[in-house]
Amino acid sequence: MLSRSVSDLWYKDAIIYCIDVETYMDGNGDGIGDFRGLTVRLNHLAGLGVTCLWLLPFYPSPNRDNGYDIADYYGVDPRYGSLGDFVEFLRQARQRGMKVIVDLVVNHTSDQHPWFQAARADRDSPFRSFYIWEDEPPAHQEPNVFPGKETGTWQYDEHAGQYYYHRFYHFEPDLNMANTAVRDELRKVIGFWMELGISGFRVDAVPFLIESVEGSIVVDPASFLWEMCRFVNVRSGDAILLGEANVPPSQPGQYFDQGNGMQMLFNFIAMNYTFGALVRQAATLLADALNIIPAIHPIGQWTNFLRNHDELDLSRLPQSVQDDHFAACAPDQSMRLYNRGIRRRLAPMLGGDQRRLELAYSLMFTLPGTPVLWYGDEIGMGEDLAQEERLSVRTPMQWTDDPNAGFSSADPEKLVRPVISGGKFGYERVNVIAQQRVPESLMNWVERAIRNHKEHPAFGRGAVQVLGTVDRAVFGHRLDWDSDHMLLVHNLASRPRTATVPVPTAGMRQLFGNRSYALRGRKELTLELDGHGYAWIELRE
To answer: 10 Å Cβ neighbour count for 138?
Structure first.
């Protein structure tokens, strides 16, 4: 492995922003977002303070699974433009100081991929062993990732005369990671995009990527993960792999692998317990989360998030806390998905209350790690529950109060998805231009939070210490990195609370908060916090 200096790890200080290209900005007026449109909007992202863009799949695809059913790993879906458009976008993002990472989906392909078409056509084809086949499916089958949408994990293919394995949708056959030829091909894919200048990959569904399928794979496929990490590090000394692994607290170590594995993992534990704490107004849940999260190698980094393109899966919480959250934030069955998650955006889940939104994002920005924002959440966009499954949170970005929310000049019926119109979260009220004009808007608040975050490396690199505050609704913690020391205090309750924090008050300065607070006390700090109030305080030596 190439050695990395901890002081040079750019991803520890990053602000990551996730974009679905087809719903962000239409640059040619056909109703579908594209790279030309995205390039036009780079100034918005730079002004917000974003330093790294994460792009959802934009590869050629039948688009039956939001682009995750990939038919060609080496191209750009013509709906989004050309490979040249992508390269120009990449160049202009770099000019604005932004790195770009892209989705790496190698657990499965589309059933329309040439590899699978060749595999199903001929048992003697070298591509047959690219996938996992059986004459009869095993008696015991693993559960499908999409309960209620798929009934199993084996699909009969009449043309092939056998069953193929699919952990996801039936039109997404799993690749056989035990096949060295598959690994060789996937390394070529990784190398191709790295040569174009990207800074890494968000790796989809990592636990399923390395699992064994009983009776079909006899070689440990987990070795592919190590090979992939080594390949990326050799090709580029600062490229990263950001893994999606919603696993128990005992398991993340195998993905970080003592600094030899992935550089980043999504912190599902922190996300789960943040929502639990918000709903129950209980700081102890956040303290529990920080105690549960395992220590990791200094090269590694957690990424903190609240919402993304998938359903909100709270399965790491105790069942009673999950029940409370579903009752409070997804009372209607149409708001739920796959018997485990919520298909809503953050703003409507919190009732559109900006005080609660600021509190939630303040927690996300100040927990140790790198923050990740989902597009549109900086303005508090809503969801469209009339859309199927996860598409509810993938509506067109709301730029203005002009027709089609400024997303496209096409006729409304030609839009890739309807814009949200009317009501509390319609584009007429919630849009970028409107919030630019209001200093107290959510978007301007996010920009200020990002600016303060970027000025203090303790947020991304510091050691964390939970501080007792007496009041069960008040969460206090500090982060320390070198000479940078930060004290963070949050009131999870809707009513004012008095926070007593065991920290001497000499040398304190409030940097950010819902308002200015008097920093009273000597041997300990006393704050009279508003309901849902919060304060970021710099501790000076």
So the answer is: 15
Catalytic residues: 204, 244
End-to-end CA distance of the chain: 38
SS3 at position 529? strand
Cα gap 394→376, rounded to integer Å: 9
Q: What secondary structure letter does DSSP report for 397?
A: P
The per-residue pLDDT for 219 is 52
pLDDT value of position 523: 86
**Structural domain tally of the chain?**
3
Where among 424, 453, 482 does a domain terminate? Answer: 453
DSSP 329-375: H--SGGGEETTTEE---HHHHTTT-HHHHHHHHHHHHHSSSEEEEET
Three-class SS of residue 450?
Answer: helix
The CA distance from 15 to 314, in Å, is: 24
Question: CA nearest 376: which of 325, 286, 306?
Answer: 306
User: Residue 16's closest CA among 321, 371, 348?
Assistant: 371
- Same domain assignment for residues 192 and 144: no
What CATH number does residue 118 fall under? 3.90.400.10
Residue 431 lies in a domain: yes
Taking CA atoms, 254 is separated from 12, 104, 224, 243, in Å, by: 20, 19, 13, 12
Helices (H), 137-292: 180-196, 206-209, 223-235, 253-256, 268-280, 283-292
Instruction: Kindly report the three-state secondary structure assignment for every residue of 87-148.
Output: HHHHHHHHHCCCEEEEEECCCECCCCCHHHHHHHHCCCCCCHHHECEECCCCCCCCCCCCEC
pLDDT tens digits for range 68-86: 999 999 999 999 999 999 9
pLDDT computed for residue 494 by the predictor: 96
DSSP 274-314: HHHHHHHT-HHHHHHHHHHSPP--TT-EEEE-S--SS-EE-
* d(C-alpha 264, C-alpha 269), whole Å: 14
Burial 468-480 (b: 16+ CB within 10 A, else e): ebebebbbbbbbb
**Please, are residues 226 and 260 in contact by the beta-carbon 8 Å criterion?**
yes
Task: Please report the pLDDT score of residue 221 as a whole number.
Answer: 60
Q: Among residues 119, 105, 141, 139, which one has the least CA distance to residue 213?
A: 141
Q: pTM surpassing 0.85?
A: yes
Q: What is the pLDDT of residue 1?
A: 45
How long is the chain? 541
pLDDT at res. 540 = 87
The pLDDT value given to residue 215: 47
Asked if 449 and 509 sit in the same domain, the reply is: no
**Which has the closest alpha carbon to 216: 169, 165, 253, 259?**
165
Where the chain has pLDDT below 50, the residues are: 1-2, 215, 217-218
